[in-house]
Design a protein that fits this description.
Chain lengths: ~110, ~120
């Protein structure tokens, strides 16, 4: 069984705070890592696709880094806003795994005014 | 605005009844995935297809679940007979590895079917 672990499970921050959370995965047979954002009552939407060790991606106030040797990725949100409230999922593709994504259970972020 | 369409959005049924969920992938996408959202396991992959052929259905209880793609515009997930423990939100997603590198096979999700089995 492939374990993709995310921490923390949930997080409450104040508007304007910067925050980050972690996705951990087995480093062997790594092919790619995806981050998805999932707002309540909506569908997951892709944020980033990361493939190379040391990759860093950025979209507005959200950025992500990848360390494939030690098996983790961080997602950072700078200056959190209420609209950032969502569950953030990471998902792993393994070498030889076809197109199959194995999702973590997510970090639920709540940004309060 | 291309999107994955799932029907029905909500389904309430009684234990033992057959349930069929439908998914229309984004036109041109050749991979289709079925997921189940559970409290404990998050998004659990049930089955996936490439070019309408089933590639992996190891996550699906075989005795009662079946997944098919009768054509490129329709994927179905059936449960027969349904049980209360099948109550969950079922998501369909599609992707297009033919036009992009596999690593960039971003999946586009439908709105889900919320199933309640009483």
């Amino acid at each position: 069984i492939l374990n993709v672990e995310q921490s923390p499970q949930s997080l409450h921050v104040q508007e304007g705070d910067s925050t980050n959370f972690t996705c951990s995965f087995p480093s062997s047979n790594f092919y790619a890592l995806h981050w998805y954002r999932w707002e309540t009552a909506k569908s997951p939407e892709a944020l980033f696709v990361m493939t190379l060790n040391g990759d860093e991606k950025k979209k507005g106030r959200i950025s992500a880094t990848l360390n494939t040797k030690e098996g983790y990725s961080y997602l950072y949100i700078k200056g959190s806003q209420p609209e950032d409230s969502a569950t953030y999922l990471c998902a792993l593709i393994l070498t030889g795994g076809g197109n199959k994504l194995t999702f973590g259970t997510g970090t639920q972020l709540k940004v309060e005014l | 605005d291309a999107r994955v369409t799932q029907t029905p959005r909500h389904k309430v049924t009684e234990m033992g009844q057959e349930v069929t969920m439908r998914c229309q992938p984004i036109l041109g996408h050749n991979t289709v995935f079925w997921y189940r959202q559970t409290m404990m396991q998050g998004l659990e992959l049930l089955a996936y297809f490439r070019n309408r052929a089933p590639l992996d259905d190891s996550g699906m209880p075989k005795d009662r679940f079946s997944a098919e793609m009768p054509d490129a515009t329709l994927a179905t997930l059936k449960i027969q007979p349904s049980e209360p423990r099948d109550s969950a939100v079922y998501f369909c997603a599609s992707g297009s590895p033919m036009r992009t590198a596999r690593a960039k096979n971003i999946q586009y999700f439908g709105a889900g079917t919320r199933l309640s089995v009483l």
